[in-house]
């Protein structure tokens, strides 16, 4: 059996922070109906990056597994920063539109 990250479904709140950490292999997927994540046995590299990211201690490698620390730290460092979300992008677009309307209104005065 492959060594993969294990999810404690009693603790997982489905926040998907771990999916961001696992941005290289995309081994973690949210189960929308249950609101928890699952780890793909085929895709998990057992790097441990998700374990570092989860604020609820809900995902971890088995205690006997030795994570690939170099891989884990490089993946964690690369994916820990929040990406620009669609909501933020939408708000920015709205703000730009409002500013444009104000400029046009100023020109007509
Ligand atoms: S970061 Fe933790 S709580 Fe959030 S979805 Fe992943 S395992 Fe669940
Ligand atoms: S151990 Fe690494 S590859 Fe496996 S689910 Fe976690 S972040 Fe993804």
Structure characterization notes:
- The protein contains four helices and four strands, in the order βαββαβαα.
- It has 109 residues and is an alpha+beta fold.
- It has a domain at 6-81: Alpha-Beta Plaits (2-Layer Sandwich), CATH 3.30.70.
- It has a two-stranded antiparallel ribbon with strand order 1-4. Strands 2-3 form a two-stranded antiparallel ribbon.
- Mean pLDDT is 80; it is low at 85-89.
- One iron/sulfur cluster (SF4) binds at residues 4-5, 21-22, 25, 27-28, 39, 44-50.
Keywords:
single chain, 109 residues, alpha+beta, Alpha-Beta Plaits, two-stranded antiparallel sheet, 4 helices, 40% helix, binds iron/sulfur cluster
Q: What oligomerization state is this entry in?
A: single chain
H/I helix tally: 4
Q: Write out the distinct hetero groups bound to the structure.
A: iron/sulfur cluster
Distance between the termini: 73 Å
- Largest sheet features: 2 strands, antiparallel
Major β-sheet strand ordering: 1-4
Q: Decide which structural class fits the backbone.
A: alpha+beta
- Number of distinct beta strands: 4
CATH topology of the domain at 6-81: Alpha-Beta Plaits
Q: Portion of residues in helices?
A: 40-55%
Shape: globular
The assigned CATH architecture of the domain at 6-81 is: 2-Layer Sandwich
Using only C-alpha atoms, the radius of gyration works out to 20 Å
- Residue stretches low in confidence (pLDDT < 50, at least 5 long) are 85-89
Determine the strand fraction and express it as a percent band. 5-15%
CATH class of the domain at 6-81: Alpha Beta
Instruction: Give the overall pLDDT as a whole number.
Output: 80
SSE string: EHEEHEHH
């Amino acid at each position: 059996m492959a060594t993969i990250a294990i999810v404690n479904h009693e603790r997982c709140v489905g926040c998907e922070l771990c999916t961001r950490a696992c941005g290289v292999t995309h081994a973690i997927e949210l189960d929308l109906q249950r609101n928890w994540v699952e780890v793909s046995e085929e895709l998990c590299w057992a790097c441990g990056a998700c374990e570092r990211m989860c604020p609820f201690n809900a995902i971890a490698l088995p205690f006997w597994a030795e994570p690939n620390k170099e891989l884990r730290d490089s993946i964690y460092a690369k994916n820990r920063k929040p990406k620009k979300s669609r909501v933020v992008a939408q708000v920015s677009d709205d703000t730009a539109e409002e500013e444009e309307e104000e400029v046009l209104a100023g020109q007509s005065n």
